[in-house]
Amino acid sequence: MQRVAVIDYGMGNLHSVASALEHVGAGEVHVTCEAAEIRAADRVVFPGVGAIRDCMAEIRRLQCDELLRSALTEQRKPVLAICVGMQALLSRSEENGGVDCLDIIPGQVKHFGQPLHDTDGQRLKVPHMGWNEVRQTRAHPLWQGIPDNSRFYFVHSYYVHADDRALQAGALNYGVEADAALARDNLFAVQFHPEKSHTAGLQLLRNFLEWNPAC
Amino acid sequence: MGLAKRIIPCLDVDNGRVVKGVNFVGIRDAGDPVEIARRYNEQGADEITFLDITASHEGRDTTVHTVEQIAEQVFIPLTVGGGIRSVEDIRTMLNAGADKVSINTAAIVDPELVRRASERFGAQCIVVAIDAKRVADVDGAPRWEIFTHGGRKPTGIDAVAWARKMAELGAGEILLTSMDRDGTKNGFELGVTRAITDAVDIPVIASGGVGNLDHLVDGVLIGGADAVLAASIFHFGEYTVPEAKAYMAERGIEVRL
Q1: Secretion signal: which residues (chain A) (predicted)?
Q2: Closest partner residue to A130 among B46, B71, B201, by Cβ?
Q3: What is the ipTM of this complex?
């Protein structure tokens, strides 16, 4: 039985993430910003919705950044970051006029830019909203049982580009080439919403519950 | 290959029951929105839109409860619309498990609501619903106007200009319904669909009038829609979601199969 803490810094509803984790077999899911609960959890999910400036302000005010760093580097627990939770891990985001983020993964969060076009010259809408293919750029336990180029549900106007290209685990092409997934040691971060991505997303969450990173 | 065009079944719900009827093979309770949503989820629908037409205030609590139940069991995005008047209403629906909330009349009464909601919750969850009807041409060019009250009440607002304004105020998506076509099964009003998809950079969902699978194809290929919404063709079992997707894919449209 797995105990999962979903870090809640007050930005939006996290019940979907919790329901999906319960659906795939997590024994106990705590949506929380309590240090004790996060410390006691076997695994940690770091979600996020909304604008980055407000997210970062709340993450710092509630000291979720310290709890996250502790889970990652001291307790060395498996951590899954989702959407704005992923973006918050990077060094800096262009959103809201430029916001410093956690710098856990060196790199930038950039706007898709307008006008945006695909390789055929078709105009692309922003936000990038809907089911996009994700190319698995390297093998990883979280991709187990998920066919390469499966579609996941995205909704975002800013995209991630990590400095260390070796960290990319999944790529997304939408006018630009972006990081759909990054992986380093016990951390896996995704731009899409696995909790909204039907069978592929549920499989990724199931894999997360079974993941034992050696680090 | 990249982003798929979305197919979105729509449920009209009154006091916790799906109206307009649903006719799936083997469904136990044709009026239960939770069971129907689950069925569409299994069929591979890309999202579900839940349109609340409950008139009474007490009935709204039922709606919240229904949204909670759907969100616990359906792992695709859920949009809730109908009767949303305030930031507080939006918050209630998002907390119940909606991923997006659709605002219609309230945006006309108070356009700044869109800005406030977008700043507070993020553009990604704010959908502005536009009910448009064709009115007399101006200088030979077609013109569409926003109507309220189920298409009965004109507002004098130009639909294309309105879509642009809503996008500027922070809408993340437009749900465009042609009131000339809604319920007719004659297909989308492609003129207004094209005009609005060209006018804004945010995604546009076409709605109103779908009677067959060619209509879905036209909505994307001619109307330029990013997503197509339909109710009765799916509810009455005329077509399944996989049939619709296979048909669209054969015509070169990128869909999630």
Answers
A1: none
A2: B46
A3: 0.92
